[in-house]
Design brief:
By secondary structure, the chain is mostly helical. The chain has 2 domains: 63 residues, Winged helix-like DNA-binding domain superfamily/Winged helix DNA-binding domain (Arc Repressor Mutant, subunit A); 159 residues, Four Helix Bundle (Hemerythrin (Met), subunit A), CATH 1.20.120. Helix content is 66%, strand content 4%. Strands 1-3-2 form a 3-stranded antiparallel beta sheet. Strand 2 and strand 3 form a beta hairpin. Helix 4 packs across helix 8, helix 6 runs antiparallel to helix 9 and helix 7 runs antiparallel to helix 8. It starts with 6 loop residues before the first helix and ends in a 17-residue tail after the last helix. 33% of the residues are buried.
Length: 249
């Protein structure tokens, strides 16, 4: 039974984990009463938690019926991958332009460079060590094909890396997109009998590029990650990969 100290956040976290793991399947309907009975808590914190998850785009509110796990489409997935790449790529373009002494390119470029300076200025040794631990754990899980463990470390890795931007709105935006991408990808990935060798494991290489200030390599790493993600779930328009052939997640 969940303790009553922070019921709202605990229920929201537990349900989010269920959705990410695919145990609470997309398209499934449920009521506040059902969840409250499942966790042995009152209806009020459950309702609040479900509203929070709906605001994050993970649940749909069914009028007079309850809630439903949102079902993302391949088009949604492609758009989300594009959105997160545009944001991160913009930051690294700012770093790259500043390093090459490029002429100012308007307010958008100036803003990108300001964010980039904050990001690279925040690479203290203890911060890098923390992100490195996430990278190591994520790579081990990816090589082993352990999807549940990978998702947990992938989200922590990218949230810490995004946190270097020093902009909570950008960080939260990217984190929300990443969670939504996993919600779409998990059921697709579960169709494979084994995920060994199929999951992206370039976490340390990307961190190396960021740590060294190599914005071009960092941009390429992010682009590779997104290409990998699209190809793995067949959202890139290509034919599905044969079983056992490496893809991306």
């Amino acid at each position: 039974m969940i303790r009553r100290s922070t019921l709202r956040s605990q229920v929201a976290t537990a349900l989010r984990d269920e959705i990410l793991a695919g145990r609470l399947a997309t398209g499934r309907d449920f009521t506040v009463k059902e969840i409250a009975e499942q966790y042995g808590v009152s209806a009020t914190p459950v309702r609040e938690a479900l509203v929070d998850l709906a605001a994050q785009g993970l649940l749909d509110v069914e009028q007079h019926r309850g809630f439903r796990v949102h079902e993302f489409t391949p088009a949604d997935y492609r758009a989300m991958c594009e959105a997160r790449e545009l944001v991160v790529d913009g930051v690294f373009r700012g770093v790259e332009g500043a390093a090459e002494g490029a002429s100012p390119g308007g307010e958008a470029v100036s803003a990108g460079r300001a964010v980039a300076r904050r990001a690279f200025g925040g690479l203290r040794p203890e911060v890098v060590r923390s992100v490195r631990r996430r990278a190591d754990a994520a790579e081990r899980a990816a090589r082993a094909g352990d999807l549940d463990v990978l998702i947990a470390y992938d989200l922590r890795y990218w949230r810490e890396l995004s946190g270097l931007l020093g902009n909570a709105y950008v960080c939260d935006f990217l984190d929300r997109l990443r969670v939504q991408c996993w919600v779409y990808a998990v059921p697709v990935l579960r169709r494979h009998t084994s995920l060994r060798g199929r999951l992206w494991s370039g976490y340390n290489a990307l961190l190396d590029a960021v740590e060294s200030g190599d914005a071009r390599a960092a941009r390429e790493g992010v682009a590779a990650y997104n290409r990998h993600a699209l190809a793995q779930v067949g959202a890139d328009g290509a034919a599905p990969r044969p079983e056992g052939e490496p893809g991306g997640a």
